[in-house]
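Continuing the batch. This is chain 6 of the set; chains 1 through 5 are on the previous pages. Same settings as before, nothing changed between runs. Recording input and output for traceability.
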Amino acid sequence: MINSEKRFIIGFLSFFIYFIFFASVPAFSKQVVPFGFCPKYNPRIMYQFYQPFIDYLNENTSYHFEIKLSRVYQETIDQLGKGETVIISCGPVSYIHAREKYRVKPILRALSKDGKPIYHGIIVVRQDSPIKNLSDLKGKSFAFGQAWSTAGHILPEYYLLKTNIRLKDLKNYSFLRHHDFVANAVLKGEFDAGAVKDIVAYKYQSMGLRFIHLSDPIPTVPIIVRTDVSKELVEAVKSALLKLDPKDPTHQGKMAQWDEEFKYGFTEATDSDYDSIRKILRVIQRESKVTGAILE
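Output for chain 6:
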């Protein structure tokens, strides 16, 4: 009887040890890869929109990606440069700054709702505002996005300069953390005008925003990697995302919960895609040397 009990205990322990060390191996067999995102929204919204995207990559590649957030755009770029991440999604201006400082490259860029790899920055005011165009902004208050935000800062400053309005000509201005913060600040009357990307502007238009300026088309947000990242990882991500067809009902279902910026598919990206943004940055940099305007 005692021997039977011993055999049972030994058998049970053997099964338990096998289960712990062997049966659970598949759950941990994938390489964990932090995927960085520039903080376009507050953390709760970031996870809401981007975790389904990460889940898709985890299901369709041999890697286990995990979201890595930061407080400001610069931090996301530095995390990539220091190797804390090897892949990120950030805006065109952030990519250019990253490219100047670190060995990185774009591999994909998102498509917009009409299937093109472009989007717009929009300057907005309240529906009841007397402001009609850019020239009316002289002496008014203005809400920018973060300093490295393409649509939230660089584009509006560039178009203000083209209208001969410099930052010093504004009544006051602030750099807010998220595009949604800018839209809400304008709606509340805290600022006379503000700048946001098109998908945010359209979201708040029915709440009382009016558009006074639409930028020229600019290249969409890139997915960026370190140049020393494995070719296998790059090809896995590209293969998983390039096969998505937003016209396919099955794929539509997969992308339904993704951020608006990602839910219409992807195309391959090259460094030269962002040359138009480099030209805009050079104009602002020249102006900043003369007037001390804030670029970063």
